[in-house]
Structure formats: C-alpha cells, structure tokens
Amino acid sequence: GENVEQHPSTLSVQEGDSAVIKCTYSDSASNYFPWYKQELGKGPQLIIDIRSNVGEKKDQRIAVTLNKTAKHFSLHITETQPEDSAVYFCAARDNTDKLIFGTGTRLQVFP
Amino acid sequence: GAGVSQSPSNKVTEKGKDVELRCDPISGHTALYWYRQRLGQGLEFLIYFQGNSAPDKSGLPSDRFSAERTGESVSTLTIQRTQQEDSAVYLCASSPWGRGGGGELFFGEGSRLTVL
C-alpha cells in the first residue's frame, strides 16, 4: 500500500521568511496530492492540492510542486505570518481511493 | 450550511468498556472516512465508505474496532473492550467525490477518547 513520509517534523521560521515542507510517496499509481492545515483543537482543512498531470500549482502565498519521477512533492509558503503557525499534513490518494497522510510538520512563525 | 458533525466531542471511559463515536457527514457526500490521531501524531487511516460499495476496512487495527454507515448518512465507529492505547482523537471526514474522483475531504473536529 501507499506510504507517505514527511519532513521536517518541526519547522521554526521568522515572520516574512519562507517555509518548505517535503513529502515522498511510494505508490507510483497515486494521482492526487493535497495539503492540509490543522489548527489546535480543529480538524484538518485543505489549503492546496495538486493532481499528477500538473507539476506546480500556486495560490497566493502558497505553492505546491510535484516530481512524479522522484515521487516527491513539496509545500512552499512565502512571506510567512504568525497565523500560518499550525500543523501541516501532506497526503496521497492511492489506487484504492484512500487518502494516506504524512506524519505532519509543526510550523512555528515567530514575529 | 452545516459541516461534518461528530459526537461526543470528548469521551472518558474505563478500560474494558465499549464506546460508540458518531459522525454526521455533510448532506449529499458519498464518501466517508474515519482516521485516528494519537497525541502529536499524524492521521492514521481506519476505514473508508463510498456510496453503497463494500467499505475498505484495511486500516482497522484489531477486531475490537468496527464501523457502520447507513446509506450515505450517519456513521458510527465502535470500539469494544477499550484499551489505554485506544486513547486518541478520532476524526471523521466526508467528501462529495465518487470513486476515482479525488478531491477535498471535509473533516469534523473529532471525538477525543481517553481510556483510563
């Protein structure tokens, strides 16, 4: 089955700096890769996603890149703000339609 | 409109007791997922319902865990003879996407289970 690895587990950045979170997946048949943000005491919320026929997608300060050959994808947050502080999860949809999540990255943005 | 609703939000139980957790998905969503999140950990897949198809139970950790869903509505996750390692937040998510369609999952706020 699909296995998703995520790094780093924690990330601290200064406000205004960029943050990058990386994930790798194992199942070459996976074709959908979302990123979720989880704030304390809440359920995860989708912030951006990418499908396997696209290499990059951008939405304001966040972007996701996908390298199908290497089976890895990354989340980029530019001009970070304190409200970006949260836990971020990557995920991959496997060939049985399940969404398999990475282990999460706790991002702290210091003012 | 209402989002995914889970109950109870908090449950404290004694080891060995059975618990039932409930999920009300967004109306019209055909897909429903249960995940477990231990403290400070990632989301562990438990079970996936898609319309009237047989559920994918491949993530259930033991036969003490079971889940049901009535059509495309409410789902209950039952844990029998609870153990301390069952302590976690149980998250339910629903999606309007059919099989193979991909797409966003909408999560509830979870049911926090503490087994003493």
List the helices and strands and how they pair.
The complex is a heterodimer of chains A (111) and B (116).
Chain A: E1 4-7, E2 10-14, E3 19-25, E4 32-38, E5 45-51, E6 56-59, E7 62-67, E8 72-77, E9 86-93, E10 99-101, E11 105-110
Parallel strand pairs in A: 2-11
Antiparallel strand pairs in A: 1-3, 3-8, 4-5, 4-9, 6-7, 7-8, 9-10, 9-11
Chain B: E1 5-7, E2 10-13, E3 19-24, E4 31-37, E5 44-50, E6 65-69, E7 75-79, E8 88-95, E9 106-107, E10 111-115
Parallel strand pairs in B: 2-10
Antiparallel strand pairs in B: 1-3, 3-7, 4-5, 4-8, 6-7, 8-9, 8-10
Account of the protein in words:
- The complex is a heterodimer of chains A (111) and B (116).
- Chain A is built from no helices and 11 strands.
- Chain A is globular.
- With 111 residues, chain A is mainly beta.
- Chain A starts with a strand and ends with a strand.
- In chain A, the strands form 2 sheets. In chain A, strands 2, 4, 5, 9, 10 and 11 form a 6-stranded mixed β-sheet that branches.
- Chain B is globular.
- The termini of chain B are far apart.
- Chain B is mostly beta strands.
- In chain B, a hairpin with a 5-residue loop joins strand 6 (65-69) and strand 7.
- Chain B has strands at residues 5-7, 10-13, 19-24, 31-37, 44-50, 65-69, 75-79, 88-95, 106-107, 111-115.
Summarize the structure.
Chain A has 111 residues and is an all-beta fold. Chain A has no helices and eleven strands.
